[in-house]
């Protein structure tokens, strides 16, 4: 398993059962605007400081990569306003970070209305108790009651029974898109056949690398056989 990042109970990782990557990471260190102040007895002073640390990024969720998209979105909803430390490559990045916003976009559904692809965008900001209107409990301490856990477990079991098997190296797929990941058109005879997965990298899958078509296709444009 390769762990990319972690915040509270959430982990971005790539392993044999699930791909949950992180994209477009952005953060900044910014000086506050200079503020000249004065009193009757003192000379003007130049007050300096830094703005609160901000952090943002996106994750593209793929059901074919073993992610239960609906459950993932619902779990993030419960964490908005919570705070914890953000770790990148096992090292802390920034101070205590509060989750301010989770956005959902670029959603793709299958014929049954199930979420197959979605982009989640995250906005974090340094937690400042003096200026925040929300008094938080660390996300590391957030838990569910026994009854809540039982309800969620039952819901997850139902979802798992209706979802497709996650993609994995060695499995066979058919191609559902019209173009390879490199842009070339996919011939009809290729789409009529099954192809063995030989590699998974990010949002792409290499199929037929063992003497077959040996081509990269987008992760959300293949279907397990």
How is this structure best described in words?
The chain is mainly beta and 225 residues long. It folds into two domains: 1-31 and 46-128, Elongation Factor Tu (Ef-tu), domain 3, CATH 2.40.30; 172-224. The chain is built from three helices and 17 strands. The strands form four sheets. A five-stranded antiparallel sheet has the order 3-2-1-9-10, with no helix packed on it. The chain has a five-stranded antiparallel sheet with strand order 4-7-12-11-8, with helices on one face. The protein has a five-stranded antiparallel sheet with strand order 16-15-14-13-17, with no helix packed on it. It is elongated.
What level of helicity do the residues show? 10-25%
Order of helices and strands: EEEEEEEHEEEEEHEHEEEE
Name of the level-1 CATH class of the largest domain: Mainly Beta
Look up the CATH topology of the largest domain.
Elongation Factor Tu (Ef-tu), domain 3
Q: Write down the domain tally.
A: 2
Q: How far apart are the first and last residues' alpha carbons, in Å?
A: 25 Å
Mean pLDDT: 80
Keywords:
single chain, 225 residues, mainly beta, Elongation Factor Tu (Ef-tu), domain 3, 2 domains, 5-stranded antiparallel sheet, 3 helices, elongated
């Amino acid at each position: 398993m390769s762990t990319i990042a972690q915040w509270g109970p959430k982990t971005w990782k790539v392993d044999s059962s699930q791909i949950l990557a992180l994209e477009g990471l952005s953060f900044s260190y910014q000086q506050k605007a200079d503020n000249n102040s004065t009193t009757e007895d003192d000379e003007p002073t130049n007050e300096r400081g830094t703005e609160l640390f901000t952090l943002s990024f996106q994750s593209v969720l793929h059901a074919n990569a073993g992610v239960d998209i609906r459950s993932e979105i619902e779990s993030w909803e419960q964490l908005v306003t919570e705070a914890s430390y953000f770790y990148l490559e096992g090292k802390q990045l920034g101070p205590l970070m509060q989750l301010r916003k989770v956005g959902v976009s670029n959603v793709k559904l299958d014929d049954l209305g199930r979420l197959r692809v979605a982009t989640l965008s995250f906005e974090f900001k340094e937690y400042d108790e003096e200026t925040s209107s929300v008094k938080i409990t660390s996300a590391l301490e957030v838990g569910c009651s026994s009854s809540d856990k039982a309800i969620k477990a039952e819901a997850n079991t139902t979802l798992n029974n209706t979802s497709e098997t996650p993609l994995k190296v060695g499995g066979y797929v058919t191609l559902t898109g019209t173009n390879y990941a490199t842009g070339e058109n996919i011939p009809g005879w290729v789409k009529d056949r099954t192809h063995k997965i030989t590699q998974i990298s990010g949002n792409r899958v290499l199929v037929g690398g063992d003497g077959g078509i040996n081509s990269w296709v987008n992760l959300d444009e293949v279907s397990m056989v």
